[in-house]
Amino acid sequence: MTLAEYGEQRWEAAIEGLEPLTMSPYRAGWRLRVLPSIGHVHVRRMTRRVVNRALHCWITDECGLSTLKNSLAVLVRVLEQAVRDGLLDANPARVTGWQQEFQRAQAEHAAPRQLALPGPEALDRLAARLVQRSPDGYRGWGDIVRFAAWTGTRFSEVSALRAQDIDTDSWTWRVCRRTVSEPGGLVDCASRGRSRRTVPLRPAARVLVAGRLEAARHTPQARLFTGPARCRFSTAVLREATGWDDVVVDLGHPYLLRHDLRHTGLTWMADAGLPLPVLCQVAERPSPEAVRGYLPPGGVSPAATADGGEPRPGAGPRP
């Protein structure tokens, strides 16, 4: 039985005794964060690592402190009921140390460049090691990681990318959907807030999709990146299949335990001279102040370029 199914069956018992004013934020935390993150996990397979991973994702998504507390609190209640029902020996949601993780993430927002990979060589090493660690040596994992880094996007958005979303005239990607986990499995849904944004594809990203676009020229709905089963994948699936947590630590990038590769993409785009308004759009930050941390040392605003953000000679990673 999955956590979502168990929560539906035992919800009333789990929340018994809660004050009415507490119910609303608890329900919101359960519906908006717990279920999308780990609702598909079987109750008997719930571990502290699963809970910590969910917390890391919520922190990375910039959830506020009260939001984190409410989401974790309702998860604690539901899993406490699972302990009483004999499904678990102990409550894995009773974790500690996440407040320090939250404070560290807050501090990192002031210096996001420190969360970027140092260059394309480091990205290639990471991609190659992830492929090597995957049970079937699936090369697609490496391409997914490279594409996410060069575009500054989320793995969930790469999973939902279809051929029709790429404009080869301007070499841009209209990001409008993402893959999420629901009780019935992985599904595609509209981007958060149903927002859409346009992401420029730099040469390295174009190389990764060119062959896929050619193969899908008659099927605009075709996915450009898939898991080994030629279907959707999630961030959790990628991390588990490639041994992500162990690999990033082995390669000296422990901050990637908490973050994806968006900071890498945004930093490299800033170094390559992407105009600040475009960088704001890619980063989903309406205010320029929110993305100035990605600018090169000295806070020099990247100069707009005639071709919409291609690298200036000698600026930023070249591919």
What does this structure look like?
It contains 13 helices and five strands. It is mainly alpha-helical. The protein folds into two domains: 3-108, Orthogonal Bundle (DNA polymerase, domain 1), CATH 1.10.150.130; 118-253, hpI Integrase, Chain A. The strands form two sheets. Strands 1-2-5 form a three-stranded antiparallel sheet. A hairpin with a 4-residue loop joins strand 1 and strand 2 (172-175). Helix 7 (140-151) crosses helix 12 (262-271). The radius of gyration is 20 Å and the shape is globular. The termini are far apart. The model is unreliable at 301-315 (pLDDT under 50).
In short:
With 319 residues, the chain is mainly α.
SSE order and pairing:
Elements: H1 3-14, H2 20-38, H3 48-60, H4 65-84, H5 98-108, H6 120-133, H7 140-151, H8 155-159, E1 166-167, E2 172-175, E3 177-182, E4 185-190, E5 197-200, H9 203-215, H10 235-242, H11 244-250, H12 262-271, H13 276-283
Antiparallel strand pairs: 1-2, 2-5, 3-4
Helix pairs in contact: 1-4, 2-3, 2-4, 3-5, 6-7, 7-12, 12-13
Family: Belongs to the 'phage' integrase family.
Keywords: DNA recombination, DNA-binding
InterPro entries: DNA_brk_join_enz, Integrase-like_cat_sf, Integrase_catalytic, Integrase_recombinase_N, Tyrosine_recombinase_XerCD
